[in-house]
Amino acid sequence: MITDNKRSYGWLSILIHWISALVVIGLFALGYWMLTLGYYDPWYRLGPWWHKSFGMLLLILTLVRVLWRFANPTPTLSGSRFERVGARLGHWLLYALLLLTMLSGYLISTADGRGISVFDWFTVPALITSIPAQENLAGEVHWYSALALVILAGGHALMALKHHFWDKHDTLKRMLKPQK
Ligand code: HEM
Ligand code: HEM
């Protein structure tokens, strides 16, 4: 079952969720490590190249994911009313932080008017270059939004484990395999 329904996520949402989770954690670690590299380190250029290429692919994947989210029914949540509202808000905040992190990353990289080469495969053009002190401003936003994203994702993972082991709901199961 590829589509989502009221009872469960389908394969496409599940696949995108776990690919995104891996890529977000990888990009955070890589971004952090990049800052420690010296100019003569070969990774001084390679690191940002991988970071930006994976980041732009994740941006495209996330836009597909949000469209898919609107095109499908959303699985109903379990738990108290408080938990359900909290989970919905939390999920939308995760999407918002994902998009903010990637858009600010795009704005840092394109501030000098050059596009972003994605794995030397295609180039995403620079569209906005006129924000005052764009590179620094976008850099600040990028750091704080990336940090907020991984902290919220950590809390989100803990809640998923709580639903699974404590409440014994099928919350985590339906993000691992479509449920009947
Ligand atoms: C969810 C996805 C992403 C995460 C979690 C992430 C995380 C990070 C982190 C932790 C850093 C190091 C701290 C900093 O200077 O801000 C960083 C730096 C950077 N990121 Fe990302 N990033 C993501 C996506 C992107 C994208 C899509 C681009 C651009 C196409 C990008 C471009 C950059 C650049 C150019 C830097 C270096 C900034 C500097 O030297 O100050 N990032 N990223
Ligand atoms: C960077 C890491 C992660 C991000 C950005 C992320 C993001 C999201 C988002 C946005 C949703 C909402 C899906 C929707 O209804 O549209 C979601 C759902 C879910 N995530 Fe994550 N996630 C991450 C990591 C994890 C991890 C590590 C776990 C498990 C330990 C997990 C378990 C779940 C579960 C079980 C759901 C379904 C919740 C429900 O049924 O409403 N996620 N995730």
UniProtKB/TrEMBL annotation:
InterPro entries (alphabetical): Cyt_b561_bac/Ni-Hgenase, Cytochrome_b561_oxidase, Di-haem_cyt_TM
Any Gene Ontology biological process: respiratory electron transport chain
GO CC list: plasma membrane
Residues covered by the Cytochrome b561 bacterial/Ni-hydrogenase domain: 9-177
Localisation: Cell membrane
Superkingdom of source: Bacteria
Topology of the protein relative to the lipid bilayer: Multi-pass membrane protein
Keywords: Cell membrane, Electron transport, Heme, Iron, Membrane, Metal-binding, Transmembrane, Transmembrane helix, Transport
SUPFAM superfamilies in UniProt: Transmembrane di-heme cytochromes (SSF81342)
Membrane-crossing residue ranges in chain numbering: 12-34, 54-71, 92-109, 141-161
Listed Pfam families: Ni_hydr_CYTB (PF01292)
One GO molecular-function entry: metal ion binding
Cofactor(s) needed by this chain: heme b
Family: Belongs to the cytochrome b561 family.
Protein name as annotated: Cytochrome B561
